[in-house]
Amino acid sequence: MEVAALAVSLSVDAVWVMLCAILVIFMQAGFVLLETGSTRMKNAGHVAGKQLLSFSVAALAFWAVGYGFTFGEGNTWIGLEGFFLKLPTDPKSIPLEVSFLFQLSFVAVSLAIAWGGFAERAKLSVYVIFGALYTVLIYPAVGHWVWGAGWLHELGKQDFAGSTVVHLQGAVAAFVATVMLGPRIGKFNKNGTPNLLPGHNQVYTVLGVLIIWLGWFGFNPGSTLTAKDGFFGFVALTTNLAAAAGSLTALVTVRVMTGKADVTMMLNGVLAALVAITASCAFVEPWAAVVIGGVAGSLAVFAAYSFERKGIDDPIYACSVHGVAGIWGTLSTGIFASPRLVEKVGIGGPGLLYGGGLKQLGVQALGVTAALLYVAVVSFVILWVMKKAIGLRVTEEEEVMGLDLSEHGAYGYPEQLQPPKGAIGEPLADTGTES
Question: What's this model's pTM, rounded to 2 decimal places?
Fold first, then answer.
């Protein structure tokens, strides 16, 4: 009877995790709409297409090497086995293949975040090469430190679903790329003041964020890795409350700052809150989730304007939404982690507000610092070598023309742009209708 009950329980868990993996993978569709809508029409096909390209690259690289580095047995720094999923079968765990697909969905989200720093100016080849190296050399190291048998895990770092592992890593890589590539043509005047380069479809961005919000119910609740006791429902509740709070505080903040209820900043508030609650969703009470999400929503607005004033051209707001909010979310467990929930999850200790002192907050801060430094240094080295070897950025002519035409030979919206001159069958020329 016990064997049969265990088999049924594992089957239910496997189905649950597989469904959550599908939800998180479907977040890629949300990123397609969000990033495409946030950029200009002449780059729409390119921005959408590279999302599928990067997911394909990540899938192969994570299967071959990345999963082993992240979750394979090794030392406190890196896994050293499990390449090509050659790991022993554990009869008391969900199938390895299901675990792989669920973890792959997280890598793909992290990589999608990183691409925000490359948008509208990077070569297509850069996406392929950096995507593979990110999946093999960058993401797995921090993933192993926190979720494998790594040194941060041994210290008790609380990052339930990846504010640090997924979001901060992607944001730091995006920041490094943004700085190294430089701003898009026309973004800043000679005196440093910014110009608005609006995305071409705000409906896409709203729909994209709604899809991502839905996908987050696979992201956070799925990280319970079990359906047994229904705890995933509590995680879903804290996740949703935080997102709702972030939406409203971001809208109020931007209204106070600019006098306008900027829809883009409201969307950033939703995403920032989701990023922030990702670390703490299993460790904090519902009221604390509202606070964490609300603070994240406001922080995202302030950070977005601050980065722009400093000359950082971040079209998708990856640095503010996933970076700043990722840091806040990771630190928040050191403040709000509830003893009863910490005991249930079994990682780390209670937060500052519950008498835990500064110990857990210190561990959280150490994890943020270590991840930030590692990703920044390795991303810089990879991109510097690539810049010297093949170049990172398209030419000025290609950027003005649009990456749809220069990289792929056809516009994503051919009927909306001026038809190319010349006879049928001749190469498409720059129409000059949009810059």
Answer: 0.94
* pLDDT tens, position by position, 142-183: 999 999 989 999 999 999 999 999 999 999 999 999 999 999
Cβ within 8 Å of residue 361, ≥6 positions away: 331, 334, 335, 351, 352
Task: Please give the Cα distance from 127 to 43 (Å, whole number).
Answer: 15
Instruction: Give residues with Cβ within 8 angstroms of 411, minimum separation 6.
Output: 42, 44, 45, 402, 404, 405, 417, 428
Please say whether the beta carbons of 268 and 316 come within 8 A: no
Name the amino acid, one letter, at 309.
R
Q: Is the dihedral of CA 133, 166, 301, 41 positive or negative?
A: positive
Residue 165 near residue 146 (C-beta atoms within 8 A): yes
Q: Which two tokens stand for residue 339?
A: 């003893």
Residue 260 burial (10 A CB sphere; 0-12, 13-18, 19+): exposed
Neighbours of 130 (CB within 10 A): 25
The distance of Cα 358 from the centroid of its chain, to the nearest Å, equals 28
